[in-house]
Amino acid sequence: MSEETKILLEESEIPPAWYNIQADLPNPLSPPLNPATKQPAGPGDLAAIFPMDLIAQEMSTQRWIDIPGEVLDIYRLWRPTPLFRAKRLEKALQTPAAIYYKYEGVSPAGSHKPNTAVAQAYYNKKAGINKLTTETGAGQWGSALSLACRFFDMECTVYMVRVSYEQKPYRRSFMEVYGARVVPSPSPETATGRKVLAEHPDSPGSLGIAISEAVEVAAQRPDTNYSLGSVLNHVLLHQSVIGLEAKAQMAKAGVYPDVVIGCHGGGSNFGGIAFPFLQDKFNGKKLRALAVEPLACPSLTKGKYLYDFGDEAGFTPLMQMYTLGHNFMPPGIHAGGLRYHGASPLVSKLLDDGLIEAQAYRQTEVFRSAVLFAQSEGILPAPESAHAIHGAIVEALAAKEAGEKKVILFNLSGHGYFDLTAYDAYLGNRLDDVEYPSEALEASLKSVPSVG
Ligand SMILES: *Cc1c(COP(=O)(O)O)cnc(C)c1O
After folding, report:
1. S-S: 210 plus which of 159, 193, 235, 428, CB 3.0-4.6 Å?
2. 37 CA distance to ligand 1 middle (Å)
């Protein structure tokens, strides 16, 4: 085992191809369904909002998909990202476990999201599209797509969940620096937004509503497509660069993880780090993969595995996934990027098949772990990523209890330098532990459409 603190790769070691877990799934995914007919959706059903290359990736079962040179050229601005051994955190916890983390916060937008934003902008541009619409919760995805659109000289409109728009004014400025137009959602610009505002004039918004607004606009305009930052198969495909690099780095350090951990909003950073390791698990290797989510929006641990819409208004295809119901309104917790009612179909399938695990935690315990991490390792984590840190700390303390030299790997999906309002609330004892909203959940699960 190497004693290095940072395990680095050369630029020439950026993976040349993405790993597509669909090639190796023990049980294939159920197809997405057309929202109107409830029949399996074909490429044509998606063509109004996505370019054909991405639709092909969405449905592909080819194991390796080459990363285009133009995308690799941009990846080289921050990839390969570093892998750290969290020696100081291990010491603070007095654990015999070895804790490693992959740090995606070194990207220009501060999270893992540019890994797919750049790829999506590239394929849209190649298809002759000049404008993209999207939603953003915490602002991380909007920043990533704004950056990618700038690099490919495209226009970008971002519907930003209102609660985040108000909590994070500097995120908006950041997106505007890259040239994006940022609109608080629900907005009066779309039929969806107007409908929500008529019923709830001070709606805090949700990712589900913001997605509907962005899809509505893209579906109506031929020069405009929609781009989603998580959930879909092609997004998780692009994020596999994280796990592929991490595998090479762990090998360089002479270790293999017993457990791989990611926080879970829609599943992209978790899938990104875990899927390349799961390929080994399918081939017989012993490994646990653990997704960590907030108890206030617990799609994997309290949701149901059903066909549901990806958005509030029901414009997107129906996907079989763990869902809290597409009109579930998550409480305004500070990990805005984890406030999504659904989960990636790939992550959902693996959970349903018992190949991965999920846990949910309260935001105050998560922030306590985030502060311990910052005080030991120095990096201020995004509140979303702090869920993975908390999961890793729980594992490390269990290893201490059992006297086990476990190897833990987690994904630090982004930094928290735009999230100081949240840290301020935590440090000032003003952070609530929103109770698990069981009544709202019961009601929203009733909105899930029945599929034959
Ligand atoms: C968006 C975001 C997440 C949640 O999205 P996933 O698709 O589940 O990864 C987690 N961490 C950070 C830093 C994010 O920006």
Report:
1. 159
2. 32
